[in-house]
Design brief:
Blueprint lengths: L2 H37 L4 H5 L3 H25 L25 H10 L1 H15 L3
Helix pairs in contact: 1-4, 3-4, 3-5
């Protein structure tokens, strides 16, 4: 076994994992920003004019939309080439983190403020703890 090659390939893999995570984080932040622009600022007064079931349905729709966006991101990021692919036989497409989209999901949900505030509002209404 060639240990120096193994060390180089594993080092490339570590760099690739950081690269993939960075791509997902950046894409998640940008997508959350765009969603917040589309939905606007959460207005509690406007929300209180709606029946609670409507707010819940809207929240479920947004969650469905989030799931679709995660699916799309999971299929877009693997199309972005990795600059070190092929060096010492390294295969970027075999890195498991490439299709997991965990970093995207976390960053998208963390920065999607409208969804956060709407969720807090609905939960407070359901638990009657305003």
């Amino acid at each position: 076994m060639n240990y120096s090659k193994e060390i180089i390939v594993r080092s490339i893999k570590i760099i690739d994992i950081g690269y993939i995570t960075s791509l997902y984080l950046i894409l998640g932040i940008i997508t959350a920003y765009l969603f917040d622009k589309y939905f606007g600022v959460f207005d509690k007064k406007k929300e209180e004019e709606k029946p609670l079931f409507q707010s819940i349905i809207e929240l479920i729709f947004q969650l469905w939309l989030i799931g679709v966006v995660i699916y799309i991101a999971r299929n877009i990021v693997p199309l972005i080439p990795f600059p070190l692919n092929g060096i010492y036989g390294f295969d970027h497409s075999k890195v498991k983190e490439l299709t997991s989209a965990v970093a995207f999901s976390i960053s998208f949900m963390y920065f999607f403020r409208y969804y956060e505030y709407k969720s807090i509002y609905v939960i407070s209404k359901l638990t009657n703890s305003e």
